[in-house]
Design brief:
5 domains, mainly beta, Jelly Rolls, 9 helices, 9-stranded antiparallel beta sheet, Immunoglobulin-like, 6-stranded antiparallel beta sheet
């Protein structure tokens, strides 16, 4: 009997759960769910590859990526020249008889571009136009219950609407065709809630518009749950019934607000009730409580805090699957943005997959959501109204969305500006990206001087929705330090959005899956097509760190004090953990590991957002023995904010125990045919008697191909004399440029102001070089020395200095001082080639050189020790990009192959020369007094 009772109780519970489940909406996928989970449908392509026959295709997908049709890139090709194939889809599915008493809608999350949908031979509704928008049809009356149904979809890649073609098919991005987002059935009770729109404020006030399809509905109940399913509270509501919707309002108590730093979310359960308070239909919506205010002449406020966007533009894209993505991709993209200390993302230039917005909600990013337009002409009003509705209705409840973009770059249709508010219960502001509109100025690619903000629109809130265009290696991090310093301190600046997140390189299935970037049109990402990190990734990470540390140098007078600013919007610094490490490194013959001499927890001050203060780094008794200090900050979630590094030992101190002059045998020098030959051990050096330049290095029978140097860059003085001084254990060669009032001394070249070169060859084979050259108050060229070393002989390098990425004058941040090792590559940033997307790039300028071991391909490399602080090491010359317009993204390099310089150039963007991007982009350099020489002190070991 007891067992029977338990069985009956179990059946009652299961029956109750079944009844309850029948009151919820059921989702049944007809397609797969993402790029990695496809369902095959029958398919026919009208033109291009694999056309003219019925076959199979996985859905969702872009048909070009499955081997059909023709590839198109929008911008510059013109819609008249584009392929205009269409695709026919057919899919059969069964529905149960139990659905007869249900309401069934078919939902298409995205189809490119015009979609005609038939079910069992009958049109499901009007043809849908617009590639990036969710649409649905009520198909209840078209279904055959308990048997097979036939779904047919005709997809035209080109739209019959000319304004959509211009907005989407001729825009500056890849053009695809197909059912590229999932398709599913939404099955609800007959009496149902079609959708809801929620406004959840920071004070806990909730207002919900409930759109109802019911003749029996009498009331609504609201309950709030946490994400673990625990009920937080029932919400007492007021209901105002209108013809198309019911407005339900109430107040939640004790809630935690949503923001990017603390993205607190809840589940709102809403039940539609009959007159006896029985549940007719239940829906669930994930929400966040937050309040957005755009205050004219002031700024953008979220939950009462004025914010600055640290943002980036982002395409929904994957190289292998085109616009068909996945939630895993969305998570990976947002995690990378958060790792760069970004807090915002702009949808460029269309609404993304729903899962991307879900991830922005849960991980925490501000979002600018946008409809798709492209320059003039604008979308026609009829279709624009439909597109605005589809965008807002789908995305209205995401707390991450702060604003709507009415298209991009002059494609705005002002007649639909007010339409956003018709569908947005939160009445979020509408912007015109690249325009001065109402309260905002979102100018694109402005020069640095525009941030003076002294124009007629100076009362507008300034935030460029695109800036520092990142084609090749320019932009992004290059120039950001100057821009951000001004943006951070400009009251009416609300930050900005870099262009853009990732290179939009597509795997061409018609070209053996090679990556196509359309020249320099689609390679403007901070990361590569497969999310390979470029140097700017780390520069952005440091500059946009919410913990700002004042620049610091460590020397004998170091007192342990660092000055700090809290650049969070919502986080106190007492929630951040910082660790200091005093580190030593091995020399060129060791490995790249490091030894921690001492490690300490740093006590950060309790600073509210915007606060400034200081902290103290504990100095152990042996701190001066360290080579570097590393400070690592970790946020409340255990994620590294950034690691700052500071050299402790000087270059001369580091090299002292590594450069040993003891040992060696006899040394002799001879002069013949204007060549000075010095022999010691198994090394033979040849120098020019006329110039003092190194002509050849031979180790045994092996040529070390370092030669023709040191050429002093921008040297105008003529050679006065070359002197030789042979001693017992060394030979000195001194090259003097022009006459001076002082006589040269063998003890030091600092005693005379004229440029000079002094070689010292020691009996153990070490080769010292000391070069003196004039400083200039205003120099637009390089100051330093250079050598020749054939590129085809270089295999790699290992060095102590900043790395692992190269630097430019306007992109110095983001490196770390330690021992690095890079293998040779010939990568052109963001360009397809033999070494495509191999980072870090091998060639370029590297800062804070202490020593470098240059590896040769034939055991013919060398090691150089640098004793001069703040020296840049130039390793070869990067190959110029193929479409480097006016040289903006490829600065002029010094002559030779390997150089040691005191200054380096800045790099520009696709649209700007570096000098228009801020002080760091200026080509002028200041080196002190004309009569005070700069001394470069090196030792070569072969």
């Amino acid at each position: 009997m007891r067992i029977l009772k338990l069985v009956l109780l179990t059946l009652i519970i299961l029956s109750h759960q079944l009844i309850e489940a029948q009151k919820e909406t059921e989702i049944v996928y007809l397609s797969g769910t993402d790029k990695d989970n496809l369902v095959e449908w029958d398919f026919f392509c009208s033109e291009g590859r694999n056309s003219g026959k019925w076959t199979k295709i996985g859905v969702p997908s872009c048909w070009e990526q499955k081997g059909f049709g023709t590839y198109n890139y929008g911008s510059g090709t013109g819609t008249l020249n584009m392929a205009s194939e269409h695709g026919l889809y057919k899919h059969k599915f069964n529905v149960p008889k139990t659905w007869k008493n249900k309401n069934v809608r078919i939902v298409f999350e995205g189809v490119m571009t015009d979609a005609q949908v038939k079910l069992n031979g009958k049109l499901a509704g009007p043809i849908h136009q617009g590639a990036f928008y969710e649409f649905k049809y009520d198909i209840t009356k078209l279904l055959k219950f308990g048997t097979e149904n036939v779904l047919e979809v005709k997809v035209n890649k080109m739209s019959a609407n000319k304004s959509i073609n211009h907005a989407e098919r001729a825009a500056d991005f890849w053009v695809f065709g197909g059912i590229y987002r999932p398709v599913y059935l939404s099955v609800s009770p007959k009496d149902n809630i079609k959708r809801i729109a929620v406004d959840a404020r920071a004070d806990g006030q909730i207002t919900t518009d409930v759109y109802i399809d019911s003749k029996n509905a009498h009331g609504v109940s609201l309950s709030l749950f946490d994400l673990k399913g625990n009920k937080v509270q029932n919400i007492k509501v007021n209901v105002k019934k209108e013809q198309e919707k019911w407005r339900v309002s109430g107040k939640a108590d004790g809630i935690k607000t949503w923001n990017p730093e603390f993205p607190n979310l809840y589940k709102l359960h809403l039940s539609l009730l009959d007159k006896n308070e029985n549940i007719l239909h239940k829906v669930e919506e994930r929400i966040g409580f937050r309040t957005v205010e755009v205050l004219e002449g002031d700024g953008i406020y979220v939950n009462g805090e004025r914010i600055k966007f640290k943002g980036v533009n982002r395409h929904a894209f994957h190289p292998a699957s085109g616009r068909t993505t996945s939630k895993n991709i969305s998570i990976e993209h947002v995690q990378l943005m958060k790792d760069m200390n970004m807090n915002a993302v702009r949808m460029s230039h269309y609404p993304p997959d729903v899962h991307f917005l879900d991830v922005c909600d849960s991980l925490g990013l501000f979002v600018l959501d946008e409809i798709c337009t492209w320059h003039n002409p604008m979308l026609d009003t009829k279709v624009a109204r439909k597109i605005v509705k589809e965008t807002v209705v789908r995305d209205v409840n995401h707390p991450s969305i702060l604003m709507w973009g009415n298209g991009n770059e002059q494609g705005w249709n002002p007649e639909v500006d007010d339409d956003f508010a018709k569908w947005d219960i939160q009445n979020r502001e509408v912007i015109h990206p690249w325009s001065i509109y109402k309260k905002t100025n979102t100018i694109h690619y402005s020069h640095y001087h525009s941030l003076v903000n002294d124009s007629y629109s100076k009362e507008k809130i300034l935030f460029p929705t695109e800036f520092l265009h990142g084609v090749y290696d320019g932009g992004h991090g290059a120039g950001l330090e100057d821009y951000w310093l001004r943006m951070w301190n400009l009251p009416l600046s609300a930050g900005g959005f870099l262009w853009d997140f990732a290179d939009e390189g597509v795997e061409r299935t018609d070209r053996n899956n090679e990556i196509d970037l359309q020249g320099n049109k689609a390679n403007d990402g901070i990361v590569g097509p497969y999310l390979e990190k470029e140097a700017s990734y780390f520069t952005i990470k440091e500059i946009w760190s919410p913990i700002y540390l004042e620049d610091r140098f460590i020397n004998e007078d170091f007192n342990g004090i660092f000055r700090i600013e809290n650049r969070y919007h919502y986080t106190n610094l007492d929630q951040i953990t910082m660790t200091s490490k005093w580190i030593t490194f091995e020399g060129p013959k060791g490995n790249t590991s490091q030894k921690v001499l001492s490690e300490h927890k740093v006590d950060l001050p309790s600073l509210n957002p915007g606060g400034k203060g200081k902290f103290y780094v504990q100095k152990p008794s042996h701190w001066k023995l360290a080579d570097a200090l590393h400070l690592t900050a970790v946020d409340t979630y255990g994620k590294e904010i950034f690691t700052w590094s500071y050299p402790v030992s000087s270059p001369s101190k580091v090299s002292k125990p590594l450069v040993l002059y003891s040992g060696g045998g006899t040394i002799k020098s001879t002069t013949e045919n204007q060549k000075i030959t010095v022999e010691t051990n198994d090394l033979t050096y040849q120098f020019s008697k006329e110039t003092g330049l190194l002509l050849e290095v031979k180790k045994g029978n092996q040529i070390i191909p370092l030669n023709t140097g040191p050429i002093i860059l921008n040297q105008k003085a003529k050679i006065e004399d070359v002197k030789i001084n042979a001693l017992n254990n060394k030979v000195e060669i001194l090259t003097i440029f022009e006459k001076t009032d002082k006589s040269p001394s063998w003890s030091t070249v600092k005693e005379f102001a004229s440029d000079s070169i002094k070689w010292t060859i020691h009996s153990n084979g070490l080769l010292d070089l000391r070069v003196a050259f004039k400083g200039f108050r205003n120099l637009k060229g390089y100051r330093g020395i250079t050598f020749s070393f054939p590129e085809n002989e270089v295999a790699g390098m290992k060095w102590l200095g900043d790395g692992p990425y190269r630097v430019w004058r306007n992109r110095m941040k983001g490196t770390r001082f330690q021992v690095w090792e890079n293998n040779y590559n010939n990568t052109v940033t963001g360009e397809v080639g033999k070494d495509q997307f191999v980072y870090p790039e091998f060639k370029g300028f590297f800062s804070s050189l202490y020593w470098s071991k240059v590896k040769g391909n034939h055991d013919n490399g060398f090691t150089v020790y640098c004793r001069t602080p703040h020296t840049y090491f130039r390793m070869l010359t990067p190959q110029e990009p193929k479409q480097n317009k006016k040289g903006k993204t490829h600065p002029k390099f010094p002559e030779g192959d390997i150089s040691f310089v005191m200054n380096i150039p800045a790099i520009g963007t696709k649209f700007q020369k570096p000098e228009s991007m801020g002080p760091h982009g200026n080509p002028e350099h200041y080196f002190g007094n004309d009569d005070e020489p700069i001394v470069m002190d090196l030792t070569f070991e072969f």
